[in-house]
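Hypothesis: this fold can be encoded by more than one sequence.
Test: take the structure tokens below, design a sequence, compare later.
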């Protein structure tokens, strides 16, 4: 049965492409909520060639199809969503326990009243100093720059999401671009819990190289370099570091 607007607590939108290794854990974290919480879950598949779709359907969630593009897929999910609050979750990320309760508690605090936000920081699914370092630096960026990234599970009221123009069609940095527009409507509500994210990218390139690559792309974007050029450089640098 389709949910009417406002019948559910939160719409969780998960864009994915060939994420059979991670989609199960992501969905388990989304659905493992107290009986009072009623998430609507929309998995938006970008033409996966593995078992991603079958695994998602096995959880009984709504599966939508889209051309492969994270920004496009998230917009498709947002348009189909039924709840007042949207949460965008990467397919290789795991939400903390009782995440909806934590979001509601944070949003109800007078000093953090906001129509958008994210989880304060992330940790890698592989323990070690890299995870601890990343957790500390992401927390500082979120608190002092008010700049959470997409892997921190950005949530936003659907009306505000539409007013700022949703996600722009970009090959990367779509999360930073959205957050920059959302910040004009106030600082984010930062939920003081960790998102667990896959360590695969950090392990593949290394902490230092991954950080420098990310910051180089961000700096280029802020200086006005075309995002298509940055995307080509980003993917080329990633492939070169794997050789």
């Amino acid at each position: 049965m389709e949910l009417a607007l406002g019948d559910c607590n939160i719409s969780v939108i998960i864009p994915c492409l060939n994420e059979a290794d991670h989609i199960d854990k992501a969905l388990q974290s989304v659905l493992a909520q107290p009986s009072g919480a009623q998430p609507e879950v929309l998995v938006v598949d970008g033409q996966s060639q593995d078992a991603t779709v079958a695994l998602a359907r096995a959880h009984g969630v709504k599966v939508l199809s889209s051309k492969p593009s994270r920004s496009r897929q998230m917009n498709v999910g947002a348009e189909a969503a039924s709840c007042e609050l949207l949460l965008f979750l990467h397919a290789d990320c795991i939400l903390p326990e009782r995440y909806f309760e934590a979001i509601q508690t944070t949003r109800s605090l007078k000093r953090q009243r906001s129509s958008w936000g994210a989880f304060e920081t992330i940790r890698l699914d592989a323990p070690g100093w890299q995870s601890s370092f990343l957790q500390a630096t992401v927390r500082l960026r979120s608190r002092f720059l008010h700049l959470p990234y997409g892997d921190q599970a950005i949530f936003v009221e659907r009306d505000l999401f539409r007013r700022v123009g949703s996600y722009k069609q970009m090959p990367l940095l779509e999360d930073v671009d959205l957050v920059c527009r959302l910040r004009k409507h106030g600082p984010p509500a930062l939920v003081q819990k960790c998102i667990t994210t896959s360590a695969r990218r950090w392990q593949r390139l290394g902490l230092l190289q991954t950080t420098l690559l990310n910051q180089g792309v961000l700096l280029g974007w802020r200086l006005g370099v075309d995002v298509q050029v940055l995307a080509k450089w980003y993917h080329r640098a990633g492939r070169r570091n794997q050789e």
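The chain has ten helices and eight strands. Residues 14 and 147 are 21 Å apart (CA to CA).
Hypothesis status: open.
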